[in-house]
Amino acid sequence: MKIDRRSFLGLGLGAAAGVAASPVTWKLTDDLSIWTQNWPWTPVPRDGEVTYDDTVCSLCPGNCGISVRKIAGRAVKIEGRSGYPVNDGGVCLHGISALQYLYDPSRVQAPMVRKGDSWKTVTWEEAITLVAEKTKTLRESGKADAVACITDNNRGTISGLCKRFLMAVGSQNFYTMDTMDKSWEMLISKIHGLNASAGFDIANSDYVLSFGTGFIEGWGSPVSNFIANSSRKERHAKLVQVEYRLSSTAAAADQWIPAKPGTEADLALAICSVMINDNLYDKGCVKKFGKEFDVFAKLVTEKYAPELVTRTTGIDASKIRSIAADFAKAKAPLAIAGRGKGDSAGSLMEFAAVHALNCLSGNINKKGGFWTIAKDEPLTWPSLEMDDVATKGYAKATIGENSSVSKLFEAVNSSENGSPVEMLMVCNANPCYNLHNAKGVQEAVKKIPFVVNISSYMDDTANLADVILPAHMFLEMSQDLYTSSGTTQRVTSLSKPIASPIFDTKHPGEAVIMIAKALEGSIASSFPWETYDECLESVTGEMWSTLSEEGFIDSGSQASEVSAMDFSLFASFKGFTMPEGDKKNYPLTLVQVDHMRLASGTFASSPFAVKTVSDSILKDSDSLVEINPETADQVGVSDGDIAFIETPVGKARVKVNLFDGIMPGVIAMTEGLGHFAGDNHYIGGKGVNVNELIGPVTDPDSGLDAAWGIRARLSRA
Amino acid sequence: MTQDNHGKAHKYGMVIDLDKCTGCGSCMVACMSENNVPFKENETDKKDSITWMKVFKLTNGKPFPDIDTCYLPRPCMHCGGKGDHGHSPCISVCPATATDYGYDTGIVSQIYTRCFGCRYCMGACPYHARYFNWWDPKWPDGMEEYLSPDVSPRMRGVVEKCSFCYHRYQEARDRAYHEERRDHIEEGEYQTACTQACPAGAITFGDLNNPEHEVYKLVKPDPHNCGRPREPKAFRLLERLQTNPKVYYISEREWVRKAGDNYRKGEWGKEIKVSHGKGH
Amino acid sequence: MDSALIPKGARRCPFPVFATGIAVVSVVLLWGVFAMVLCWLKGLNQTNMNDYYGFALWIWADLAVIAIGGGAFFTGLLKYVFGIDELKNIINLAVVIGFICYSSALLILAIDIGQPLRGWFIFWHANVHSMLTEVAFCLSLYFSVLTIEFIPLILENRQLDKVPFFHNLSHNMHGVMAVFAATGAFLSCFHQGSLGGVAGVLYGRPFAYREGLLVWPWTFFLFTWSAAAYGPCFTLTVCKMFEGITRKKLVKDNVIHLLAKISGWMITTYIIAKIIDTIYWAGVTAPEMGFSLMDFYSDNAFYGIWILFAEIVLGGIVPAVFLTVKRFRENKKLLLVAIILGTLGVCLNRWVMVLQVMAVPVMSFDTWALYIPSWQEVATTILPVAYGVILISLAYRYLPMFPQEQELYDSK
């Protein structure tokens, strides 16, 4: 066969045309690309009718109003609730992430009982019976007071039911986690003789002098403070931050006063001394209410003159004077305290020194000032029946001195013949993570023969429990909530279930009622409600109709009139010494810092929140510590080094993060990492829990744990 | 002719007040939650972590105690490109027209089903606003329940980025048509998820072509100068590259405004001409 | 064993030796194939690329192989269009290298995209403004041209040539080759250029951005010119490698010196243009964007000013001098140094225009991004090398790749 140029071309073109015309290749190519656009393992969310359900977030004490977007009944997104008194549409990242808490498959899905090193799933009846039997045995052997209970706070029906249960059983050992609110209340009661909580009218103050508060990092009611902070720009209000570290609050402030850690009280008193010396205080107010003002005036002018305090605080006398002048000159000055998010108690002496500024300025219960908000018990409980056992047990003192939860665990650890607590009930709290010397607390919990945890998550405490009663998470339940931290505004709200329970969980209050009922007798009759909802409706009394219809009651700011200011007390506080540990072995100071993007309360942060955390705080599974480049040089570490941080309480592997914003000699470590989270590897096992490195320090003035740091050393690994 | 935008197309944009931003992260999470952004067990490699809205932390570079820091949230800038003609750095390079400029909104779109993952657009974007799906998105069992049908979850191997919550625009537009308002969309009707969530009220969103809108009032974009802010405290990131972003920042702090662009020694403070040329 | 396939009169090593060599290289090839399959099945998470480094080793490999494969179009242009007939003695080699380089580039591109099954969208949904679209069109068209150029050589295999159809086909194809060579050269100008345009148009990346002519940035022209200039260096390097390995002279010196000389003058003109471009960019373009030259070469652990020096002096001026000066060019060692430096120089240029572009921070508060490829990336980058070695070995063994081989052997 002879091929000429023509037939060659013809053949070639023919072949090409043939292939091109065959639909197989083209169809296949197209089908394959369509397949990649519809991969069966990439989810396709179901569509449907859009609705919104309002409720209130209870992940932190801020209690913001939230609005849940639902599609065909399934919750898909959380947004802030516009017009809600606390947050007016704004919402923090944790609140937005709440659906990740709701749908989390690593939640405790059914009641579980520990069998050696493993868990056994049981029915609710079995679990409740087990707890009731244990309580009964303890009561029968006269150890009713060996039952203890911890909840995260003492507001509302859930903790009310726990407390009531403990009373009916016969134990005073009811504890809540210590927060700054406790210290402020204690201070108000001592200085002003009032049963009131502290309110800070930040939104109307034109000069906020903050002593280490994480005012825009989760302090008080976070969103409400964000709004107040933003409005400063338009109001021309000043924020002055006293802190040893350039926190976000310090960076946002108009002035940053980097006083040495632990000298905040000295600085506050030095400002007081200037105000008194230069006659910059509200004499009318002091004269009217002040008791033993002269003693105080003498003390501060002698011991806290700016020149003297310069040495301790590292702040120039001239600067102290100018702050005093500005503070006094301001129309509505306000001094606030409570380190970080305020979720540790803090030093009462420091609070007092700061509050002395408010007293001197006379800006109390006035617009933009410090408020003493009346503390009324909002709930009406029916009378409680206590049998002989209960009465006898209840008469005994608490195991933890001053009702301090830290002391409770110290008592357990120090007891030589078995644990004085024989049954511990933990409800919505995570002491094994949140308390200082967390490892020690874990040891104590292990020592307690029977631990019941009412929890939604397999957290650090649940992991050590004997029985876990799985609780609804807040989106699955009703609950009464009380916004009170930080602001002057008091909002009572009702959260409503926006989703039906996903797992075999129950309302924590209901779990308590069930245990009580299983115990029969006087205990059962003290819990006359069939369900938690019935209890809620009955104990909220008059509030119920408004709560159930409107969702919240905004009682605004109702002050308890101040009629006394006992200045003698300001001088009587002892204060507490620096964090434990000797300077020679531990030349540095480790401080815990709070970060808005990491939850530091009962709940670990969500996967979304963890994702937002900077790699200068968490890298792979290492926590980073902030250290000043100058100090790093002295210690011999450089940026990114793996190092060991050692304190008298513990040791941990960390990574070094050089940061010019931290005072030389101080190391900062972020709170909220190092959680145990069961099978949830998105949030668990990341970094180090700083509470394992810091030990509790009892404040002699309040009896509460007031530690905020510890001596430490850092060495390269 | 509609009256609301003076006959011109919409030009949606954002103004972020850096003095109000607290770096709290709400915008980031609101965005992830609104737009079905996935998450991995380890998200600490920030160069491989999908955050349509990312908050940078800037520092003035000074030692203690003169140091200052500032947070800077960075969504997609929805650049108008050279001469503001819609040839943003990314759009002009995409070989498959998988990203496009909405001349009616000024929004830079991303079509996930068309993108074949060449990542040229990522290389083109100086803001690192574009993210690649290196992994198949995976949600823990049961967590797919919160996924929104308004935004399709992306498959592995494609690029994604902030869309100014375009689905919210579509919804607002549909409502406007339905209510016979043509495309008259009220300012409050179309807001992005981050704007809505920001607890500090630092983010403002609206139509830069509409003098009634807050964004316009805040920065006074100069229509004859590719939308450059006439407000002295306002700036755009990398103005000198002529990308003409639709995201503006405001700060009282000079060092923050300076950090918004690159300046050679001695240039800051002097009038710098940016040609805002016609582009290709 | 396979002697019937070996070109008449050509001396080749014994088949077992050849087979062993191929087997060894095949292991490397399989390693690469394994990595490639991993990338396709599991996705690009197998690489160390990230959102800062979307373009990395692979894109560099693409640009580099296409640059050094540029010998094919340029030699073809010289021979068929400019009628420099001596080059017929090296054109086969240039075509085979070109074929290997371009098929490798297409393969790497197919691995490099996140959705390989949708790769054809680049044609279907083409965006004419995109340099990558231009690359894709020109590249695939030119690859077809190269295939057509390669076919006649294959058909010249002793056994295939016996089939009258193939014999005639080959003959006829040779007849029309000038048309294809011209087409190829035209296409090449555009795809080499558009590859340069890929980086040059990035006005968001001051390190890469260049002003230019009409829609084409200067890098467009520089890439075309450098591919033409340096491509022959690689052809010559491969030729020298063959001669070294086979211990035979395969191409006459006059051919080699001629190509080397042309390459030398091309490099000279290119490097002058490149220096002017660099000065203009460093003095005008970058400063307008707020950057000083040293901003691109400081504050990081790798990219120092040395890289610019290496590219321009070692990879440009030195080979230019060595190749243009007759005395140097005809010195065997210096010639070798020059063509190797030239090959490395153009590869370094492509490296800088891809990897350094990604590494340089643009926002004032951003940081340098450095990246180390994963083994999967390295394996898939070596894969084409192994494939090339195998293909070119087969071509050498069974095809009359070097027309002067017999003559040179006889004259020895």
UniProtKB/TrEMBL annotation, chain A:
Residues 50-106 form the 4Fe-4S Mo/W bis-MGD-type domain. InterPro entries: Asp_de-COase-like_dom_sf, Molybdopterin-Qrc_component, MoPterin_dinucl-bd_dom, Mopterin_OxRdtase, Mopterin_OxRdtase_4Fe-4S_dom, Prok_Mopterin_Oxidored, TAT_signal. Pfam families: Molybdop_Fe4S4, Molybdopterin, Molydop_binding. The keyword 4Fe-4S applies. Belongs to the prokaryotic molybdopterin-containing oxidoreductase family. GO terms for molecular function: 4 iron, 4 sulfur cluster binding; metal ion binding; molybdopterin cofactor binding; oxidoreductase activity. It comes from Desulfamplus magnetovallimortis. This is Molybdopterin oxidoreductase, molybdopterin-binding subunit. Signal peptide: none annotated. It comes from the Bacteria. Keywords: 4Fe-4S, Iron, Iron-sulfur, Metal-binding, Molybdenum, Oxidoreductase, Signal.
From TrEMBL, chain B:
The keyword Metal-binding applies. InterPro entries: 4Fe4S_Fe-S-bd, 4Fe4S_Fe_S_CS, ET_IronSulfur_Cluster-Binding, Menaquinone_reductase_QrcC. Residues 12-42, 106-135 form the 4Fe-4S ferredoxin-type domain. CDD domains: PsrB (cd10551). Keywords: 4Fe-4S, Iron, Iron-sulfur, Metal-binding. One of its GO terms (molecular function) is 4 iron, 4 sulfur cluster binding. PROSITE patterns: 4FE4S_FER_1, 4FE4S_FER_2. The keyword 4Fe-4S applies. It comes from the Bacteria. This is Molybdopterin oxidoreductase, iron-sulfur cluster-binding subunit. It comes from Desulfamplus magnetovallimortis. The lineage of its organism: Bacteria, Pseudomonadati, Thermodesulfobacteriota, Desulfobacteria, Desulfobacterales.
From TrEMBL, chain C:
The chain crosses the membrane at residues 21-43, 55-78, 90-111, 131-155, 176-203, 215-238, 258-281, 301-322, 334-358, 378-399. InterPro entries: Electron_transfer_protein, NrfD-like, NrfD_menaquinone_reductase. It comes from the Bacteria. Keywords: Cell membrane, Membrane, Transmembrane, Transmembrane helix. It is a multi-pass membrane protein. It holds the Pfam family NrfD. The keyword Transmembrane applies. One of its GO terms (cellular component) is plasma membrane. It is found in: Cell membrane. The keyword Zinc does not apply. Its main location: membrane. PANTHER family: PROTEIN NRFD. Belongs to the NrfD family. This is Molybdopterin oxidoreductase, transmembrane subunit. It comes from Desulfamplus magnetovallimortis.
